[in-house]
Amino acid sequence: MLKLKKKTAALLADSVKECFGEGLLSEGEIFEMLEYPPDKSMGDIALPCFKLSKSLRKAPPMIASALAEAVKCEEFSEIKALGGYLNFKIDPTAFASRVVSDVLSAGEKYGSDGSGEGKTVVLDYSSPNVAKPFHIGHLGTTVIGHSLKLLHEFMGYKCIGINYLGDWGTQFGKLIVAYKKWGSRKTVEEGGVDELVKLYVRINNEIKREEEESKATSADGKGHSPLADEARAEFSKLEHNDEENMELWRWFVSVSFVEYESTYKLLGIDFDSYLGESFYTDKMPAQVEKLRNMGLLKIDDGASIVDLSEYNMPPCLILKRDGTTLYPTRDIAAAVYRKGEYKFDKAIYVTSSQQSLHFAQWFKVVELMGYDWFDQLVHVPYGTVSINGAKLATRTGNVILLRDLFDEAIKRVYDITKEKHPDEAECREISEKVGVGAVIFYYLYNNRIRDINFVMEEALSFDGNTGPYAQYTYARTCSILEKAGSQGKMTDAPLSEPEAELAKTLSVFPERIRSAVQDYEPSVVTRYIIELCTSFNRFYHDCKIASCEDEDLRSSRLALTAATGRVLKTALGLVCMKAPEKI
Ligand code: ARG
Fold this sequence. Notes:
By secondary structure, this protein is an alpha/beta fold. Helix content is about 55%, strand content about 10%. Among the domains are: about 1-90, CATH 3.30.1360.70; about 120-280 and about 320-385, Rossmann fold (3-Layer(aba) Sandwich). The strands form four sheets. It has a four-stranded parallel β-sheet with strand order 5-4-9-10, sandwiched between helices. A three-stranded antiparallel β-sheet has the order 1-3-2. The protein has a three-stranded antiparallel β-sheet with strand order 6-7-8. The relative contact order is 0.11. The structure holds arginine. Arginine binds near residues 128, 129, 331 and 349.
């Protein structure tokens, strides 16, 4: 559609010149004016001539009729002036033929405008915290992040996916204490990350209990926990490279990693770098120094901060009273490092919207530090996820792990499909593709900033705007082509409304991908997928395809089917979904 719109703008620019003279309106200006009329009976593209009347100094209806005479294009069956509008009606046969051949000749590249060629994007996403559960709250950063990576790659960007593992911090002090008290090598080796999470949850509960109990008897009414003191001491030992603690830490990280890897593998996700928070420990002092030298640091109650009141934000904390660094300090150091390492044109961070202020603050600090690339930093926030209404807490142990969510979906699909698929291995493979895809699609179908309530039954349903429906439609295109034994090609056979509609839907794919990238919004793709499936299924119900008696028409319809399959496969891939040929 974009192509046709561009072509129309070019033709109009010529006609304006011809009818009204040189230098009045550029092709680009005309392009911006073109609209898609809401009422299709008026036309498929329209030029509202009101906007031209000022520069051309003529009444809009006059302009419209003059141009109607002048413009010629075989892709339109009708170019008509109506009031102040110039309406273009697409010729279904010529248009569909052009679109389908565009799709089939570009193949897996159809939809890409190559706008990222020569540019580098760094994406920071997923980034779970070691020893804490990898839970449903991470679904957003993981799948939005990966989808944005795939979308950027598709547009030609060189992409670096970074998993900024939360592999450093006071939680390791707690975990070390808990492990020494209640754990053993054997239980952790056997139980993996679940065992670490159990230990972590247990010590948090104990600390809370100690604090509560001591409140009643303490002079100042504040609770105090000896266990928390121990944890701080162990973390401090870790920070000073105590060999025993370092060894435990490395082990905890690797145990957690096993769990992440299995989830990433299931989702088909991989990262180019796993440099986590611990990596930046020795890179922070230089940035703190720079802040101090530039006079940007202020001491507030013993802590070092950057005052951001001028920008209507609370201060950004750089050093705690005890001189230890904080989350923003690390992010600043990491950004500087990544700029040097990757020379990025854009650095994207995908996290929950609860961290929006954090990013706004440290982006501002980077700007104040004089780094001229501050405006290449992009925060992409998303809303919270709940399950059947229940909010997800992290530290209580009452959490839904990401892996469990996917496993549950796979199991449910398996139970439904196993009757249809006698072959066990095939059935498992399909269940995995459909189950995982269903969860991802359901999640990505929402505008990312909205909070969502996850309902498994809805996600897995085959009717409705779901992943299984989309994959099923893709499998339908495959089976039609397989049975027909031919991919078809576009002929001159006259096409009708459902075919033209389908061709139009195929033609808007490149524009949609563009806006998905521009707005960092994978839901543009999932919504498009549903639009395309709906168009295709309407065509499928209204038109005979492989069984069509007219050879030429059959060939065109098969080609439309092949083009639909091609675009669906690309689109599903861009939202981290597989496209199984059979379901
Ligand atoms: N590990 C953090 C969390 O789970 C997310 C890290 C996001 N990335 C960043 N550069 N701050 O909350």
